[in-house]
Design the sequence.
């Protein structure tokens, strides 16, 4: 069975060099970047809030991610499922960057309401921040034409071997429309496009 050529996430997995598959594992990625983290079954260094999510989530969109309080043990914690990991939380701006041949070409910032689930963004918009490709990922640029990295507070949290699919229409803004929205606001000057994915049905773009 061949992968769907339109599914950029799944296609990236099939095309990746097995030596580079560590980037799909967010626990290994976080450990290599020096973050405070661990797999379910390990203990946290001190009681507090942590983000828990699947180690590997090829479809993306923050599936399974949740911020929760962990006192000590993670093995029997109701939010810590098999195949998940816990990690310290970064609170800064959420930036997504595309690099072509290692050169930064697209930079967008996502915003969401305080307390909203990690996947539920209100808006993505192009910004002018400069974020050079981190040294740990430099070996990838000779193998993959495009690399996308998501940052929070300037710290990489996810790596994708594909471009940002939400900004392929020449747009500078993308406002998600979610399935559970009882009333859908319209935006004069913007146009609506269908883009069903997880809890999302489409975008308003310029």
Sequence:
């Amino acid at each position: 069975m061949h992968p769907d050529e339109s599914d950029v996430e799944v296609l990236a997995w099939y095309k990746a060099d097995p030596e580079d598959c560590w980037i799909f594992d967010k626990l290994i990625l976080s450990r290599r970047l020096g973050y405070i983290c661990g797999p379910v079954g390990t203990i946290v260094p001190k009681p507090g809030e942590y983000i828990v999510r699947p180690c590997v989530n090829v479809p993306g969109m923050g599936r399974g991610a949740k911020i929760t309080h962990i006192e000590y043990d993670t093995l029997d914690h109701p939010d810590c499922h098999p195949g998940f990991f816990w990690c310290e939380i970064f609170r800064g701006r959420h930036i997504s960057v595309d690099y072509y041949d290692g050169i930064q070409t697209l930079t967008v910032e996502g915003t969401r309401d305080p307390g909203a689930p990690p996947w539920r963004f209100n808006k993505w918009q192009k910004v002018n921040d400069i974020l050079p490709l981190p040294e740990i990922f430099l070996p990838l640029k000779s193998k993959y034409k495009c690399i996308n990295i998501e940052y929070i507070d300037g710290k990489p949290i996810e790596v994708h071997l594909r471009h940002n699919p939400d900004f392929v229409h020449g747009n500078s803004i993308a406002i998600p429309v979610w399935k559970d929205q009882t009333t859908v606001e319209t935006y004069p000057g913007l146009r609506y496009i269908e883009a069903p994915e997880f809890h999302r049905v489409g975008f308003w773009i310029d």
Q: What stands out?
A: The helical segments are 8-15, 26-32.
